[in-house]
Amino acid sequence: MRNAAGKAFQAWKSLLSYLALNNLKLLEDRYKGFKRVGSRSIPLHKWIAAVMPANRMTTGQASSFRAGYVRVLSFLGRHLRRDEVYV
């Protein structure tokens, strides 16, 4: 069960990353600044779209994509990951 929850979370994270990369302009308005990656600096909004850190998978982030179901599924995905069942 634990492995399935992790895979479902990763799949959802990948889908959110795909949606974010297709809507970079929405993220650019929200996330200003740069992220240091190794010896390079990249725009923060591009890093968030590519990596999609779990702490950025908020309902506000998901609602930026203008799809209500994304907001609900993001909530469920975060809680599925947090409340993993250890069998």
The total of helices stands at 5
Q: Determine the structural class based on helices, strands and strand pairing.
A: mainly alpha
Task: Give the spatial strand order of the biggest sheet.
Answer: 1-2
SSE order: HHEEHHH
Mean pLDDT: 75
**What form results from the Cα inertia axes?**
globular
Task: Give the radius of gyration.
Answer: 14 Å
What proportion strand?
Answer: 5-15%
Described by strand count, sense and barrel closure, the largest sheet is: 2 strands, antiparallel
Helical content class: 55-70%
Residue stretches low in confidence (pLDDT < 50, at least 5 long) are none
Compute the separation of the termini in Å.
7 Å
Quickly count the domains.
1
Q: Tally the beta strands.
A: 2
Topology (SSEs and partners):
Layout: H1 2-22, H2 24-30, E1 34-37, E2 40-43, H3 44-51, H4 59-63, H5 68-82
Antiparallel strand pairs: 1-2
List keywords for this structure.
two-stranded antiparallel ribbon; 87 residues; 2 strands; 64% helix; mainly alpha; 9% strand
Précis, in short:
The protein is mostly helical and 87 residues long.
Task: Give an overview of the whole structure.
The chain is built from five helices and two strands, in the order H-H-E-E-H-H-H. By secondary structure, the chain is mainly α. The protein has a two-stranded antiparallel sheet with strand order 1-2. Strand 1 and strand 2 form a beta hairpin. The longest helix is centred in the N-terminal third of the chain and has 21 residues, at 2-22. It starts with a helix and ends in a 5-residue tail after the last helix. The mean pLDDT is 75.
